[in-house]
């Protein structure tokens, strides 16, 4: 059993009212403190390369998509959010996705697809906002997912850096 | 006639027909009351936000000023739900019974003295000039319990019933203290008429907040309890009772409850101003025109309204037994002693400024005797050992 | 206008008064009583007795009736059926009791009314009407001092009696959580 020793109150504390006034002064000071509210749509959250936003597909400068529809991301995806159908192309890299859907309602933004991708074709972008009026509209198809590599460069560099570190540490051990 | 006629002015001044005058005043004052109540909902959220380092609603209109309007529209368009097994008549009656007494009480509050514009005289700036307005206000505060108790009972919900019971027990307990505190003011100023009480304080320059400090503090505390505001919000008490007596209410019925609560706050603030801060009077200035008195009155009442919000975020809610102990064992005896001392001072014709001194002389031994916390830990140990 | 209002209010008072005894649910009875009190207060106002009206609302409607409501809600007698099913209170006894009490009260009212008429005839009408609070106070504390104090003592006795009945000592149980009154 725990015996709680209550603090013996002083005379002023026993009067109660002076303590109320003291409390009021605390809250009054709080009123004039700097406000910490962020006015969200006008002041969006600052993002950087560590931000793990929604996955996007990288498109090269020559307008070709990097993805070769190998399906590794589809397998890595723990939420089964990715659906890929591949097709052949005439280019040197002879495969590309015919269909690449990510169900953004299932996506948990874990970044496994980005990690699994052998072709640096999918990156967690800095795009965070996700809202629409229907579930169907939130299943993003390939056209909605395509981003020029310049828009994803920061994240791409960061992922390279991460991978380098992993490779070096695994080689030393 | 229930309502005394407006005081007759000089023969040279012109007057409106009585009925027109009343209608005009009623429209003006009730518009002001409802407008203030609506603004209070915004102020509540704004002040809450400021105390929590936030900004508060600022999307609807400049500084969020149109927020009450948006809230009202939302309430109107919400679905009205009458719970299964609720008593339909009383369920609908309760919000009305809660809002109406609160609004009626504003009728006797003298916002300013005689209004004169040019040759025209409009009488005092209050709807009804009742000789016994203090009793009228007391009667209406007594009636305001019914809305809460009926709302709680008729909802057919345990939370509501408990909330209603708690609230009514609390309101009855603190009404005694409230009225006893007012009674000492009545003794001091020698009238049951709010106008006379305000005028007396204005003429002597000694506001009751100074000569009746005990009554003032008691009134302010009881005021919080009567309006079910923090730290006495046992009726609502979100963590314990969901929403208390209005758990089952939705849409405009819920809005009516809230309107009643905010109107009661406005009325109480006005009453406190009249009883203890001399109405629209300024210190050291004897006679004021009505257009000075009205803003002064509003400023004083607003400071009380701000106090309501300010205290809400300062003090935690009492426990129920603490509430009852405070009400019956501390505040009621204090109020009685204060009433007795006041009566003695008035009867013996002593200077009223002796009152605060006497009050302190009484208060200090009282606090020393009864202010000691009960040795709770020891008793718990004892009980545990016995069991 | 005043005449019409008086008849309307009187009719309401009587109708609601009938509702007090006629309605099956105690809750409705109490609310009818509230309506009766309000109607009576308005009749007082109409006759120029502001003080009486305020006192009526303050004391009866504001304080006493709320206690009624409390008792009824706490006893949870939602309607007469439960009252009838209650083993200790039989409906027949209740009716007899109600009838006896009503007869007694009526007799008391008759006696008091006769006395009051005599008193009002003998009491001089004050110059500025009956409604002056000073006049009421002076009468209460001089001429009717004894009945006034007697009623106060009666109320006090009732209060103590209720407390004695309600706070009857019960064996105190102790649990791990502390004291629990059985």
How would you describe the overall organization of this protein?
- By secondary structure, chain A is of the alpha+beta class.
- Chain A has a domain at 55-172: Alpha-Beta Plaits (2-Layer Sandwich), CATH 3.30.70.
- Helices cover 34% and strands 17% of the residues of chain A.
- Chain A has six helices and six strands, in the order H-H-E-H-E-E-H-E-E-H-E-H.
- In chain A, the strands form two sheets. Chain A has a three-stranded mixed beta sheet. In chain A, strands 2-3-5 form a three-stranded antiparallel beta sheet.
- Chain A starts with 10 loop residues before the first helix and ends with a helix.
- The mean pLDDT of chain A is 86.
- Chain B has 387 residues and is an all-alpha fold.
- Chain B has a three-stranded mixed beta sheet, with no helix packed on it.
- Chain C has 182 residues and is mainly alpha-helical.
- In chain C, a hairpin with a 2-residue loop joins strand 1 (172-175) and strand 2 (178-181).
- The longest helix of chain C has 32 residues, at 91-122.
- The model of chain C is unreliable at 78-83 (pLDDT under 50).
- The interface between B and C is medium-sized, with 32 and 30 residues.
Largest sheet strand order of chain A:
4-1-6
Topology order of chain A in helix (H) and strand (E) letters:
HHEHEEHEEHEH
The helix content of chain A is 25-40%
Computed Rg of chain A: 27 Å
- Poorly predicted tracts of residues of chain C: 78-83
SS strand fraction of chain C = under 5%
Largest sheet of chain C: 2 strands, antiparallel
Total helices of chain A: the number is 6
Shape of chain C: globular
Overall pLDDT score of chain C: 72
**Which two chains touch over the largest interface?**
B-C, 32 and 30 residues
CATH class of the domain at 55-172 in chain A: Alpha Beta
Give the termini separation of chain A: 53 Å
Using the 3D structure, state the CATH architecture of the domain at 55-172 in chain A: 2-Layer Sandwich
Secondary structure tally, helices of chain C: 7
Strand order of the largest sheet of chain C: 1-2
Order of helices and strands of chain C: HHHHHHHEE
Give the helix proportion of chain C (percent range): over 70%
What class do helices, strands and sheet pairing of chain C give?
mainly alpha
Give the total of beta strands of chain C: 2
For this structure, the quaternary state is heterotrimer
């Amino acid at each position: 059993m725990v015996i709680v020793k209550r603090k013996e109150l002083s005379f002023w504390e026993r009067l109660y009212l002076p303590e109320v006034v003291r409390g009021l002064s605390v809250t009054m000071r709080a009123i004039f403190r700097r406000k910490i509210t962020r006015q969200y749509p006008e002041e969006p959250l600052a993002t950087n390369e560590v931000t793990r936003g929604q996955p996007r597909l990288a498109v090269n400068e020559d307008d070709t998509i990097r993805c070769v529809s190998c399906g590794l991301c589809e397998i890595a995806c723990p939420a089964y959010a990715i659906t890929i159908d591949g097709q052949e192309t005439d280019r040197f890299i002879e495969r590309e996705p015919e269909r690449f859907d990510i169900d953004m309602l299932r996506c948990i933004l874990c970044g496994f697809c980005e990690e699994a991708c052998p072709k640096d074709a999918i990156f967690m972008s800095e795009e965070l906002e996700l809202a629409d009026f229907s579930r169907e509209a939130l299943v993003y198809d390939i056209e909605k997912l395509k981003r020029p590599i310049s828009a994803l460069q920061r994240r791409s560099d960061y992922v390279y850096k991460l991978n380098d570190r992993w490779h070096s540490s695994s080689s030393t051990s | 006639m229930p309502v005394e006629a407006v005081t007759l002015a000089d023969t040279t001044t012109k007057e409106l027909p009585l009925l027109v005058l009343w209608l005009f005043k009623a429209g003006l004052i009730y518009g002001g009351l409802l407008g203030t109540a609506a603004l209070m909902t915004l102020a509540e959220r704004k002040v809450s936000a400021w105390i929590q380092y936030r900004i508060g609603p600022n999307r609807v209109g400049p500084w969020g000023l149109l927020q009450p309007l948006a809230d009202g529209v939302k309430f109107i368009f919400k679905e009205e739900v009458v719970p299964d097994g609720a008593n339909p008549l009383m369920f609908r009656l309760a919000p009305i019974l809660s809002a109406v007494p609160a609004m009626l009480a504003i009728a006797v509050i003298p916002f300013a003295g005689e209004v004169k514009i040019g040759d025209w005289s409009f009488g005092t700036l209050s709807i009804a000039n009742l000789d016994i307005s203090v009793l009228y206000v007391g009667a209406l505060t007594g009636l305001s319990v019914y809305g809460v108790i009926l709302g709680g009972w008729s909802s057919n919900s345990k939370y509501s019933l408990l909330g209603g019971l708690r609230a009514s027990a609390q309101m009855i307990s603190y009404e005694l203290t409230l009225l006893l505190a007012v009674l000492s003011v009545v003794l001091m100023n020698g009238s049951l008429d709010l106008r006379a009480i305000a005028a007396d304080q204005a003429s002597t320059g000694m506001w009751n907040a100074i000569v009746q400090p005990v009554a003032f503090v008691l009134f302010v505390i009881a005021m919080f309890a009567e309006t079910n505001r923090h730290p006495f919000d046992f009726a609502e008490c979100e963590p314990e009772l969901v929403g208390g007596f209005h758990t089952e209410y939705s849409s405009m019925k819920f809005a009516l409850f809230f309107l009643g609560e905010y109107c009661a706050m406005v009325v109480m603030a006005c009453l406190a101003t009249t009883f203890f801060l001399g109405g629209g009077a300024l210190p050291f200035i004897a006679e004021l025109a009505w257009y000075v008195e009205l803003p002064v009155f509003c400023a004083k009442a607003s400071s009380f309204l701000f106090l309501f919000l300010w205290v809400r975020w300062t003090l935690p809610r009492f426990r129920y037994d603490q509430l009852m102990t405070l009400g019956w064992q501390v505040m009621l005896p204090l109020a009685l002693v204060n009433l007795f001392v006041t009566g003695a001072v008035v009867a013996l014709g002593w200077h009223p400024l002796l009152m605060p001194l006497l009050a302190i002389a009484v208060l200090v031994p009282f606090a020393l005797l009864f202010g000691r916390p009960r040795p709770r830990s020891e008793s718990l140990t004892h009980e545990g050992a016995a069991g | 206008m005043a005449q019409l209002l008086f008849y309307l209010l009187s009719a309401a008072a009587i109708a609601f008064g009938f509702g007090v005894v006629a309605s099956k649910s105690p809750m409705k009875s109490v609310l009818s009583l509230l309506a009766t009190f309000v109607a009576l207060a308005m009749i007082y106002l109409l006759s120029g007795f502001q003080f009486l009206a305020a006192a009526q609302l303050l004391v009866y409607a504001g304080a006493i009736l709320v206690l009624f409501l409390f008792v009824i809600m706490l006893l949870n007698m939602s309607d007469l059926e439960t009252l009838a099913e209650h083993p200790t209170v039989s409906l027949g006894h209740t009716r007899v009791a109600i009838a006896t009490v009503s007869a007694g009260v009526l007799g008391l009212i008759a006696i008091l009314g006769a006395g009051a008429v005599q008193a009002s005839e003998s009491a001089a009408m004050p110059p500025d009407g009956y409604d002056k609070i000073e006049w009421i106070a002076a009468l209460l504390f001089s001429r009717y001092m004894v009945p006034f104090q007697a009623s106060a003592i009666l109320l006090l006795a009732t209060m103590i009696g209720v407390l004695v009945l309600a706070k009857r000592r019960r064996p105190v149980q102790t649990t791990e959580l502390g004291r629990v009154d059985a």
